[in-house]
Structures are given as structure tokens and as C-alpha cells.
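Assess this one:
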Amino acid sequence: MSKRVVLCDDNRERLARLVLAVREAGGEPVEAARAQVLRLCRGAQAIVAAGEEGLEALARLALDRPMLPRLALVDPALSREGLLALVERIHPFALLPEPLDRARLTAALLDALTSTAEGVTDATHRTTRLPAAAPDFERLIRDRLTGANGYHYLRLRLDEELERAARYTRPLALVLVDVDDLRGINDRWGRAAGDQALKQVATTLMAGARAVDHVGRWAGGAFALLLPETNGGAAYGIAERLRADIAARRFQETLPQAIGPARAPARMRLTVSCGVACTVREGASQPASLLRRTDAALERAKLGGRNRSIVDGGA
């Protein structure tokens, strides 16, 4: 029985080369438009995607066929943001750089079809890697200062979790945690002290989060916690626990000397303010709406005196 390989590409010339590569690998090429991908992939052993049409199709498979091997042909001029998105969309198989190396594509296809035939469920161990000169994707999705997940990673997770929440009508909560008076810390003790404060807050948040949560640095002194299967009340409880934990700690054993006549204390107390929002009806929110309501709750916490958690009224 031939092994079906779905091909999705809006470039007819490149698509013809893909068809030849699939046949060389012993597969049956099936051309699919983006709208047909979900249906045609149900009986497929792999998907190869290229161009805007194909790469958009990969996003549609994130929930429906999470372990279907994917091969994405990547233009070297693809933007940093595009690469970040692809890191998530192509898992669990391979990125192949353009211009198309048919021999390499054939080898990757053979690997994909072999792993499918052997019943391999964790294809991450068979990933075809990019050349050494390719971007370091781990660094792209991590915040370099704190080591936590970065903004782009969190936005990808937010979109995916909202889609999952909508599909299965499950709750989803978002918490924004902002370090109180970060500018004052930088002005009084220097930027190195502010950076150290951010690192230790990030460590506390990551240590206190659940395994299913997504935690990362949102921007500046703000961090985000994406909490699946969590309603507004439960999210408030998580935010308050983390806020109280940070307020009770004394961060940083030693600090740089204060600028000017004042001297830095041996240890520094930090506080954070938290804004909390949940999908209004289970699974019914859009990213912009959830972010706007969470940010409004955070602003209320700041105006209310800081060092507190506020839940959006729509939660």
C-alpha cells in the first residue's frame, strides 16, 4: 500500500519538484489546497508545505493531527517572527531551507515515512536539523535576560490555547504580573539591580506555576501567566499566591551601591501587581479582548496602591 504524502504549496514549479521528490521516496503525492488539508491529511503519512499557502496550512494541523510528520520549506529571507511561528507549527519534524535540495528532501521524506511505518509516536528524535548557520530557535523563543519564555512564544501559546478553549468549551485565564516601581529600582540602585530583580521574579513565577501553565516575560517589567482549564476565581487564587510569595521574600544577597549618598540595603524587597482575566464565556474570547481586559485589571491594581491582584469584572 502506497504511503500518502500531502503537498501544499502555491508555487506550481516548486510543487512539481516536490511531487518528484515524494515519488523518489516511494510515497504517493497528493496535492492539496489549504482548505483541503484537514480532510486529506486524515489518511496521510506526512505533509510537505511551502510558500504562504502551505505554511498557513501547517497551523491548521496543530490540534487535529499533532503527531503527523511535517516538513516545511523555508525561504532564507523569512523574518524572525515567521521563523518563531514555524518553530511551533512544524513540530514534530523538519525545517528544510530553500533553495530546495531534492536529495535532502527525499532523505527527510524517507525518514518520515519510515517513522510512520514503525509506529514512532515521538518523532522529535528523528528531526532533520538545519545547517549550523541557521538561527538558534531556542534563543528566539526565550527571553535572554531572565531565561523565561519570551513574548513571541507567549503569543503563539495564547492563540493556540484560545482555539483549544473555544473548541472544547473550556475556561482559560490570563494573568499579567508587573514589578512595582521598576524604574525607581533602576534609578536608585542601577540597572544591574533592576535586571537581577527581574531574573529573581521570573524564577519565582516559574517555580510557582503549574506544569500545564505557560509563563514568560511579556515586556519590560511585566510577566504573563497563561492558565489553561482555569476560571477567574482560580486564576485569582494563583495570582495572589505568587504575589504574596514575592512580597514575602528578600531578593538578592548583595546589591550595587546606590547612586548618590543613599546606600542600598543588604537585601531588597520587591512587590508586584497582578491583573487577571478569564474567557467571558468558556472559550469565547479573542486574544485582543482577553489581553485588553487583563491589562485593564492590572492598571486598576496599580492605581489601587500596587502589591495586589485585581480580577477583570467580565471574568
Observations:
- The radius of gyration is 23 Å.
